[in-house]
Amino acid sequence: MRARVFFVATLVAAAACVDERTLHVDPGAVDADGDGHPASSDCDDADPNAWDMGQAYRDSDGDGRGAGALEDVCRGWSVPRGWSDQGNDCDDGDPYRWFSQAAYADEDLDGVGAGALLTLCTNGALPLGYASVAGDCDPLDRDAWQGLGYLYRDADGDGVTVASAGVVCTGAWLPAGYSMSPNGTDCDDADPYASLTVDGYADGDGDLVGAGERVSFCGGLPAGWAALAGDCDPVDGTRWQLLPYVAVDRDADGYTVAASGSVCAGFSLPAPYRSTANGTDCDDADPAKWRLLSGYADEDDDKVGAGALVEVCTSVALPHGFVATGGDCAPADPQAWRTFAYSFRDADLDGRTVAAAGVLCIGAQAPAGYTSVRSGDDCDDTDPDVWTTVVAYFDADGDGSGAGSLLAFCTDGSLPARHVRTGGDCAPDDAAAWRLASYAYVDADGDGYTAKQSGQVCTGPTLPDPYRAAANGNDCDDADPALYRWVVLYRDLDGDGVGAGPRTIPCLGATLPDGYSTSGYDVNDADPAIQSVTSVDELVLGL
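and the corresponding structure tokens:
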């Protein structure tokens, strides 16, 4: 299709050129074919497409490519049919072949040829059975065409390799049994069931631990051989290893004595050897005795011994006549065995003590009147009726609050007459006042509204008038009971109840003065009928 378009375009261009050249033919000159070339210079004045002598190749099969030697031919813009400017047609008798290619025979169609280089006449593509690449190492096997190098072989296919370098004819990759990287070392690459070298030792007693020299086997150990070496008794199947021990228990009481070494054994140490110690047997020949207990001789059997601490080889407890507790302060008296240090005395036995330190040898309990625990502070340990010191203030006016210096008395806990525990009476002779109370507000005019003012006043249970602890309002004039609040007011000239600015803030009472209002949004204070803007038009007019 592309050749046809090119041919038509060439004809159109040629016609244009003929028309142009016709205009330049000299008057009276002959141009029979009207191609713009006079007969005197036109090599074929009967053919408007040919006017110039040139050379071309004869194209016998009409495929656009010629062959043979160049020949003279009358032509125009292009050569006439049956001729070509190209002379490389390798078969000018076949319109479907014109391109000469070098190739190799590819009998197995794997894309790689073999044999001598051949020259083929083609249409630009090699025919089936030929390849442009040579070097097929197996021309009859389409799955093998190149030699790939290998470093390891696995001839028996057990997955374990041996070092063996070479080249094998194959395809895109190495075939099975060939590899560039190792995977173990096959001790017998001809037997898939034998690949690993195993070292063994003669095991005559069958305890799976051998002895003697090491022997290597390919694929596994035969009967009578073991992978482990070091049998400490090669003829006894119950013993094969040296086990260390750190203790022995010769009387089998479960308690050991220290003794280290090694013994030929099986899975575990035999008796009396032990891998871990358990206690320290003080008599490993007597199973009834295994540990040392420390104790004291108890002559009076009061469970508290005396004398030096001694060690006794026994079992779970000290034998009779010995106890774990020492320090008997009376070794021959079973009723007294311990030293009691007292820190307090209660001579009058009123339950209150005084500090008095000393030491007694006693039994289970200390005698009455001796203790190590403080119980109050008896101000008189000779009188059971008084025991505590009280302090008080003299209360002259009897209001429950005293004054003057603090006084001390030894009593049963009660205060003497006209004495109290609380001091600080600010009015010692006034029974109605005894404490300073703080105030933060006052109501001087008695109108119920306060003004801020702080201080203190001597009083009784409550603040007297006009003093207050909390605010009630904010009296703007605490000297006038009729005035007590600040009010924001606006002048109301038209009397409609709504005023207008400017505002004032006077001090007032319960009522407002005439002509004033608390509302200040009257837009026309001269007209009682108008108080506020009610529409957009009014707002615009107001602005």
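(Above: one complete record from the training split.) The longest helix spans residues 2-22.
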